[in-house]
Description:
This protein is about 40% helix and about 20% strand. The chain has helices at about 10-20, 35-40, 60-70, 85-90, 105-120, 150-165, 170-180, 190-200, and strands spanning about 1-5, 25-30, 45-50, 75-80, 95-100, 125-130, 130-135, 140-145, 145, 210, 215.
Amino acid sequence: MRVLVVEDHEELAVTVAAGLRREGMAVDVALDGYAALDRTSATDYDVVVLDRDLPGLHGDDVCRSLSHGDRRARVLMLTAAGTIDDKVTGLGIGADDYLAKPFAFAELVARIRALGRRSGRALPPLLVHGDLRLDPSIRVATRNGRRLPLTPKEFAVLELLLSAGGAVVSAEQLLERGWDEYADPFTHTVKVTISRLRRKLGDPPLIETVPQAGYRI
């Protein structure tokens, strides 16, 4: 899942981003509203975690812009103002969910994942292919009943391939959805991750390389 955290308090933004990365998400950070719109125009995010009280371009204006555009990203608005009227206003300008500060990190993660499931094509709660099963909600993948010891990136790649339903997924798409802005598109990151994933999945092989196109289950 690709997430954008928009928060002008840099220390908080970095802390939240680091925590979400530990949860297996690909996370970018923007420190103001203008940077947020620049990033959302260039990257297809699943969820935008948006601080409402931003300097310069207010979070409300960012939310309105995103809600009026042709976007797939869901907006989770964060704010220190947590009254009912504030929530009604936030939802009324296009936010998909609303979380008051201070918040429990576990709740933030749960809300982001819930919004991520709504950001694109509806997926079943359990992704299954033969004896391979992947549960996105609890971040567990098994094959023939055996739990697979996957890293967050390996899990993300496997989830993307299973979600494609047999369609080919290019290396560029995997890099876009599974890594953040710091990933080098000219490295063999995806190829190496696919190789490790194949070893952990075992036999018979499940991931097919489609020459000049990408990979598919």
